[in-house]
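Researcher: I'd like a structural prediction for the single chain below. Treat it as a standalone chain; there are no partners to consider.
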Amino acid sequence: MNWQAVSFDWNHVRAFLATVEEGSLSAAARALGLTQPTLGRQVTALEQNLGVMLFERGRRSMSLTQPGLELLDHVRAMGEAARRISLTATGQSRTIEGQVSISASEVVSAYVLPPVLKKLRGLAPGIEIDVIASNSLSDLSRREADIAIRHVRPEQPDLIAKLVRETTGHLYAATAYLDAHGRPGSAGALSKADFIGFESPERLLSVLNARGISLTRRNFKLTSANGVVVLEMVKQGLGIGVMAKEIAALMPGIECVLPQLDPIPIPIWLTTHRELHTSRRIRLVFDLLADAFS
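Model: Treating it as a single chain, here is the predicted structure.
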């Protein structure tokens, strides 16, 4: 092999791939835990080393050039190989055994985790997973869980947190509900609609009112502290609710209501205790979850 012909840095390749997968430099920087200028310099360095332009840069957007498109499949193959190397370096995942507890909301536990856990069973069949499905924040410092999937960044200094994804929430309703009550064409048209509240309706009220929807407590005819119950009530046509877009994509028979409204940001943080992060089995599960969510 002509080693001198390999004239690029893997970190630069990773920066390029993350920018393509995440859709922007800022999103890629967050996913990799870097600053945007640092990631931008890495992408530029890769272009200089390869002697090609990978992106067409506009004022607010970036699009792949033809050379960038031609390299993308090869770079994705490198990314998959790097992921497998990382798993191997974790220490022969199939020989790792023991229990790992994961705390996540009911919705994440029911709709997001199962395919990830199926993949984990193939990689490390000796690991036993205990899923703690609860919207309450498990206290990792007291070992209530080994890993937590949260929508808020933990403040405890002894915890390790990684922002693995930023998604958005939107208004959704069943097609049957919209057929019966009409499809609103503006935020004002929602003032008399039935809404389904999650936990405290007051919190959702302030979020929706800030987006120009004039609602009161009387709009919330139904409320539940269980996210799966809220989703099911929306599916059954009982009112309008808020869902993350990825969850809504799994729900047949529902539609986005007023998609032009400002989305509700939903960050996804992966958290573990600093000491537990050195455990081989917990590190393996943590890395697999980070890969799946990002």
